[in-house]
Amino acid sequence: MSLDSVELLVSFENYFGISIPDQEAEKIGTVDEMTRSVCHHLGISSSHTTLRDDVFALLKKAMQQAGISDRNVTFNDHVKDFFSYTPETWQQLEQETGLTIPEFPIAKQGTYIERIISRIAWTPQADYDALTLSDFCDVICAANYQKFLNAKHPGSSYEVYIAIMAIMEDKTGVSLYDIKPHKSFTADFGID
After folding, report:
1. Crossing angle (nearest 10°) for helices 50-65 and 157-172
2. Where would a tag sit more exposed on the chain, N or C end, judged by fewer CB atoms within 10 A?
3. Angle at CA of residue 175, ends 169 and 181, nearest 5°
4. Among 56, 3, 2, 20, which Cα is nearest to 164's?
């Protein structure tokens, strides 16, 4: 394990008040595996998504009040079908929901040297066209995790996942929009 991965692991352990043995930690390769490990150590078996459901209800109401949608929306709908990304749109949604909504990472083409560096270091991989309302709710939950979650008593594996997203973003700079359960710490985020 590299210093980066050890520091990230310690951040998870400190937040949740647990200790993950080294042998177990070395086998954790994805965000989902980390979530399952934390849940195991906390004795969490529930997978309810009440938090996401509540944020989704707020988001739907905000979309209706802002005139963005008057139809019934679902978790699987794509954000692009309702509005184009602009920081102003996100600010309007923040005002309507009372929640922080992080800006979407837009990968820049940059100069030749910047493109070479981007091949070495992590760069945003999020695809706005593929962003579902479910993904969007996950990002909103993670951006507001300190408002929503009790670190020592998360209520479900979903809440553990949300906290892991938020801690990863804080400690590594990886965008919340890029963090998904199947993503690999090494292959996708460059954390050895």
Report:
1. 70
2. C
3. 80
4. 20
- Pick from 172, 165, 166, 177: which is nearest to 189 by CA? 172
Dihedrals phi, psi of 20, to nearest 5 degrees = -100, 120
User: How many whole angstroms separate alpha carbon 50 and alpha carbon 159?
Assistant: 9
pTM of the predicted structure, to 2 decimals = 0.88
Length, in residues, of the chain: 192
Amino acid symbol at 148:
F
Residue pLDDT, tens place only, 114-169: 545 444 554 556 788 899 999 999 999 999 999 999 877 899 999 999 999 999 99
DSSP string, 123-189: -----GGG-BHHHHHHHHHHHTHHHH--TT---SHHHHHHHHHHHHHHHH---GGG--TT-BTTTTT
CA gap 61, 1 in Å, rounded: 45
